[in-house]
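Possible race condition, two jobs.
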Amino acid sequence: MNMEISQAAAAWFKRELDLKNGDYIRLFPRYSSGGGLHPGFSLGIGTEAPGRSAIQVEQDGIVFYMEEQDLWYMEGYGLTIVYSEADDDIEYKYEAKSVPGGVQV
């Protein structure tokens, strides 16, 4: 699993959540009536420091991460978070990752 955050998306998080350099964004699966990668779940966000970070990426001074117990949500996918200027909001883009032999999961 890989995770990328655009600079514009990181700036949106900083503005919307009043974050400063060195702050954290935790991404985690949560129950949701809307659709995400898995029916009944979507990505939630929190601003706490990592406990058992399994993957993390720094962008624009903010550390974005997922905990070990939450990686099941992204299994077989990569995540890119981008900023949508038209909606003044962030957008999650999921990309299926190939495994050896060319099979997509």
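Job #2 (started ~2 s after job #1):
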Amino acid sequence: MAKLINLKIFSHFFRSSSAGGIFLLICVLISLLIANSQWSEGFKEILNFELGFNTSTIHLKYPILLWVNDGLMAVFFLLVGLEIKREIVEGELASFAQAALPVLAAIGGVLVPALIYLFFNNGDFLTSKGWGIPMATDIAFALGILSLLGNKVPSGLKIFLAALAIVDDLIAILVIAIFYSSDLHFLYLGYAGALFVLLIIFNRMGFKNLLFYLIPGVFIWYFIHHSGIHATIAGVLVAITLPTNEDDTDSPLEKLEHALTSPVNFIIMPIFALVNTNITFESVMIDGLTSNLGLGIILGLFLGKPIGIFIMSWLSVKLKIAALPESTTWFHVLGLGLLGGIGFTMSIFIALLSFQDPLHQNEAKFAILIASTIAGIAGFCVLNLYNKRQKQKI
């Protein structure tokens, strides 16, 4: 009986929206402990160990760290692409009325942090490359913290945050593709483009079997990886081509989305956190928090995100372009904006693309961890305190 109860509790936890964020946090803590222990050098050697093979025509031998950041993260971006397409076809972004508020709020939540970062780093050629770091929102952590509040917040606020984070991810994907790509190799781009067109043809011809999309998708990843554009974009391209529908029947897109959600939340994202947050703390990193790089990230995420989200939401409502979700107040939007400052996964990912210098990477990661922690706690407190005050008035 006790075992049955434990299994039910375990099953309920992994189905909850906060589980992914909690598991991710555990992996962050483990990574930080390893990085500041006697196992630090051994862990780095593991991450630098090369897997794969090379031939005269095929180059697929890379360090484990690169396989995680370019390979596993392509699967993460595939899931993000599936979510974006589903929301556009049948979800919260399906009509202008539904999409206006989260789209405009996301734009504000992207522009203001980037401007704040550039305000501090515009004069430095190296650090100015990181302007995309404070633009991102970690949907797993943000929704996880919001779910901890349960029915203390209106259900419409959760939908608003989810839609906003998805638009935020779309903008981040475009930024990565356009601004964080290296020298382009057009032959490989041509190969990838031809396969992408083939997948569109499969879609138009009504092919439902996922293998028709996933097998060519692997080759798209290979060609994109060698083209100079970051390989993770391949996941988004494949997602765009998958068939879906507007009714309740499961489409190939929805089947793949359901199949990927748990592996991404409980395997891929934790592995990414494990290998990319192994920060060895040094006294110079504390000083780095008050450097232009650190201030740009921290103030961009903690102040820029809520300011941008709040102002654009307020303007869109006042101009009657959009309306707040039912039972949602401006205090709710403020709390949501603070939760939007949890950059973490995507911010760390962009930091790795922005800087080659390990010192800059570690300073950026540390600033992201600090800013995301403060933003998460502040967002939770604002929403929780507002709920308590409303109860006292009743």
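The CA atoms of residues 96 and 112 lie 23 Å apart.
Logs attached separately.
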